[in-house]
């Protein structure tokens, strides 16, 4: 059981580092204010989900979910 806890702790630390890097790589939401002037109707605005930014958002969501799950597992195993 101790080996599993060590492995989960290492994975947890790697997820924390990856989450930090991914959040820092993302663009600010202030750049979305171009919708007022009609910039959202461009090709880039329509296909943002397939772009690098969309991929970063999707990976960040998955890492955040795994962060919460592993944190809960590590907390439960203390009792």
From TrEMBL:
It comes from the Bacteria. It is a multi-pass membrane protein. Signal peptide: none annotated. GO terms for cellular component: plasma membrane. InterPro entries: SecG. It holds the Pfam family SecG. Its main location: membrane. Keywords: Cell membrane, Membrane, Protein transport, Translocation, Transmembrane, Transmembrane helix, Transport. GO terms for biological process: intracellular protein transmembrane transport; protein secretion; protein transport by the Sec complex. The chain crosses the membrane at residues 6-25, 56-76. GO terms for molecular function: protein-transporting ATPase activity. Involved in protein export. Participates in an early event of protein translocation. NCBIfam families: secG (TIGR00810). Belongs to the SecG family. This is Protein-export membrane protein SecG. It comes from Candidatus Eisenbergiella merdipullorum. The lineage of its organism: Bacteria, Bacillati, Bacillota, Clostridia, Lachnospirales.
